[in-house]
Amino acid sequence: MFEWNDFITAFWAFFVLLPIVALIHQLGHYLMALLFGGRSEIILGRGKLLFKLGSIKVNRFYFLDSYCHYESLKVNTRLSHILVHAGGVLLNVASLLFVNTLIMIGWLPEAQFFYQFGYFTIYYMFFALFPVQYSEKHASDGKQIINIIRKYTPSNVFD
Fold first, then answer.
1. CA distances from 5 to 1, 9, 72 (A)
2. Do residues 122 and 64 lie in contact, with contact meaning Cβ atoms separated by under 8 Å?
3. pTM to 2 decimals?
C-alpha cells in the first residue's frame, strides 16, 4: 500500500535516481562515439538550459528525457554504428553489475536506493532495446540497430 512516506522514495526515484540511470545510458553512447572518433553531446531533459558541463547540457526538466547526439565517426562502419547505439545498454549493464558486485562484497548496503537503481536500469535497458519508431526521425536504440543491420542509414539522434 502506498503511504505518505513513500512520496519521499518516489521523489528520490524520479528526480534523482532515474536521471542518474539516464545519464549512465547516454554516457555509454557518448563514450562509444568518442571511441570511434566521433563528436558527441548529451542532453538531459527538456526546456530551458540550466547549465552546461563540457559536452553535457542539463535542461530545466532534467528528469523528462535524455538523448545523445553524435556525428562524424572516423570509423564509419556498420559495426561502429551498432556499437554506438548499443553503448547505452552496455554501460547500463556494466553499472548494474558493478553496483551488485559492491553489494555482494559488502562495500554497499542492501538498501532500497540500490534496489531501485537496478529496477530503473533494467527498465531503461528494456525500453531502449525495444524496437520502436517513435517518430519519422526518432527511433529506439533497438530499432536503430535493426535498421543498421538491414542496411538503412543510421540516425544521428538516439535515446
1. 11, 7, 48
2. no
3. 0.91
